[in-house]
Amino acid sequence: MKIHLKGGILIEVLLAGTIGVMLIIGVLTLITSTPKRTADHNRLQAGVALGKELLDKVVVFAEGNWHNLASLSTSSANRYYLNASNSPFIAVSGEENIIVASTTYTRYFYVDEARRDASGYIVASGGTVDHSTRRITVVYTWSSGEKAFSTYLVRFRNIIYRQTDWFGGAGQDGPVTSTNSFFATSTNIHYTTTTGSIFLSSNATSGMLDSTTYDTGFTDGAQLNSVIWQGDLPGGTEVRLQFAVSSSSSGPWAFLGPDGTSSTHYSAGVEVSTKLNPEAHRSRRYFRYRLILVPNSAQTLGPRVDEVIVSFSP
Q1: The pTM is what?
Q2: For 159-313, which CATH class?
């Protein structure tokens, strides 16, 4: 019994000693690794901050002039950083090195096109290119790590063109930088019967009015976004719209509909915002709209237009 007891005590002592050594080694490992973990965490946090700062600058860069961003070459092979010492910022090809607490970080961003399906949702492939949206990926690296994140930037700045009167009549080709009561040409349209409104002429199967050329003032071009019209639309009648854009104030003017051809048109009810096809009316400085008024089949009723509102983004 004594032998068994002593053996048991010896085993327990050996086990206790072994566990004690293991605990000491564990504590020493924790003590020695904690500073390293803290340093790694601090480097990661610094990298995150530098990445977010670069994205903030890209947002400011795009908001100042969308074309600054849209003109950059796409794909991950084209790396950029921003020279923030100039105002506005300047995009520079390559990577930027920044030293923080003796650690050297490298950061850059690249741009990809964004594609949307027929419903307007962003898709990874297929669809059509949305020239008013870009995918931005920011990359930041340091000696022991690399991180990246992506987001989408949209050409969100919106400017309104509004025409509420055509009483001045035809003959003004423009360009103009603000709306007035004139337009370029019309056929079978009454514009003096009621100030601020246009109607179909009696017994006309349709009527058409082409606006004056409007100068957005943006030499790099403006993207037409949407159109709304106000007035009255009796049953069986229709108001159709087409748009023409050009880099020159003298045209040429090709009035197009949603499929990018002259055979289609935008048609919507009163005060209904209609999205314009960005591919059909891509970033040009000047634009015109065409109104087509259609009566009911008996030609006893016709629509009335009081206002046309076009939104665009520089």
Answers
A1: 0.68
A2: mainly beta
